[in-house]
């Protein structure tokens, strides 16, 4: 597939025109953090027979580069802080919360059900059930839609969904040979049997199995996949750096203008109170151009600056049935509406989840691309975003791989990730989904829009799309 894509996009005559148009859009949209398009009121997406699910509030502790201020903590510490921050901001009685579900990717073995441990630590009743889900970078998306199903079906009225990731301390395993020997040791009854087992241990047994952000099915790191995708779609290094610079510039502007309303302070034991993300670093094209390729050397285009960085962080959202929220006196931020999950080839289409999810969720909701006022897409790599844009703008790709008669279409850049994204804010794998949805809700309110489309790719060639509808502000 990759070779076919490379061949095809090398001969598409509109390639240069597309890149020129996108560069113009990037330059124009980087000057404003809010959408310039305010939609008129459209239809609502309420479903007969289902309870409407509302986002009452969403919070996150600051997202920090791994190995910095959070380094001595554990995942449940971060999740607990997000939960307590949500309780403080909403004043919801913890006894009113029916259920808690969190997403995470790299599990700490001591707290494998991190949702339960964080909930107990945050002061929730031991009678409040909690479970943890994992779906790579869309783990907290899955947590939210799990909660959505429980509320819409009438099983629950109030659920906290969230996500956490802690890359400062990930499990490093002994080699399988050493694990086998250690697991056999308790079964040795006599001293002779124990000494015999010890005698079988060889020096190479002590080599650890180091973790890697790689696909199990292909053994390829996501960075390599992004580099190949960029080559297949003809996305240049300069385009990627321009998009990364846009992300950092918009994040910094949004932070300065206090638009990142979901960020809550976190007093880190033994440290100062953390109040803002520490990965936002606007630079210049000249500085970005000096960085060397990070994955495919020396000719790759993915660098440390145009890829999201390893991040520690946690997020949480309070979801309720609309009736429950209003009965408790809350003014919701938004409705959660239709959503889809997609899967495709994990080798050559690993990062194209948004391309596949966008038309499906729009069609499910009865909307078009033009109906969307706010786009919030996860930025794993600048190459991933730009490759998705090209796939969405390609009639050939739509017909060849998606079974569609026409192309998906490209979001307007003055509606797209206008407060920055994962490239600059950070990407704690399990926590990003809640940030996307909460940001989308706040952007809708700030810009007077009605519909937002949230989309993300994930390891395994999976993806997610969701429609968020602003709550009437009258």
TrEMBL record:
It is an enzyme of class 2 (transferase). It holds the Pfam family Thiolase_C. Residues 330-469 form the Thiolase C-terminal domain. The keyword NADP does not apply. It is found in: Endoplasmic reticulum; Mitochondrion inner membrane; Mitochondrion outer membrane. Keywords: Acetylation, Acyltransferase, Endoplasmic reticulum, Fatty acid metabolism, Lipid metabolism, Membrane, Mitochondrion, Mitochondrion inner membrane, Mitochondrion outer membrane, Transferase, Transit peptide. Its main location: endoplasmic reticulum. Pathway: Lipid metabolism; fatty acid beta-oxidation. GO terms for biological process: fatty acid beta-oxidation. GO terms for molecular function: acetyl-CoA C-acyltransferase activity; acetyl-CoA C-myristoyltransferase activity. It catalyses: dodecanoyl-CoA + acetyl-CoA = 3-oxotetradecanoyl-CoA + CoA; an acyl-CoA + acetyl-CoA = a 3-oxoacyl-CoA + CoA; tetradecanoyl-CoA + acetyl-CoA = 3-oxohexadecanoyl-CoA + CoA; hexanoyl-CoA + acetyl-CoA = 3-oxooctanoyl-CoA + CoA. Its EC number is 2.3.1.155, 2.3.1.16. GO terms for cellular component: endoplasmic reticulum; mitochondrial fatty acid beta-oxidation multienzyme complex; mitochondrial inner membrane; mitochondrial outer membrane. The keyword Coiled coil does not apply. It comes from the Eukaryota. Residues 53-323 form the Thiolase N-terminal domain. Gene3D superfamilies: 3.40.47.10. Transmembrane segments: none annotated. InterPro entries: Thiolase (IPR002155), Thiolase-like (IPR016039), Thiolase_acyl_enz_int_AS (IPR020615), Thiolase_AS (IPR020610), Thiolase_C (IPR020617), Thiolase_CS (IPR020613), Thiolase_N (IPR020616). Mitochondrial trifunctional enzyme catalyzes the last three of the four reactions of the mitochondrial beta-oxidation pathway. The mitochondrial beta-oxidation pathway is the major energy-producing process in tissues and is performed through four consecutive reactions breaking down fatty acids into acetyl-CoA. Among the enzymes involved in this pathway, the trifunctional enzyme exhibits specificity for long-chain fatty acids. Belongs to the thiolase-like superfamily. Thiolase family. Heterotetramer of 2 alpha/HADHA and 2 beta/HADHB subunits; forms the mitochondrial trifunctional enzyme. Also purified as higher order heterooligomers including a 4 alpha/HADHA and 4 beta/HADHB heterooligomer which physiological significance remains unclear. The mitochondrial trifunctional enzyme interacts with MTLN. Interacts with RSAD2/viperin. This is Trifunctional enzyme subunit beta, mitochondrial. It comes from Potamotrygon motoro.
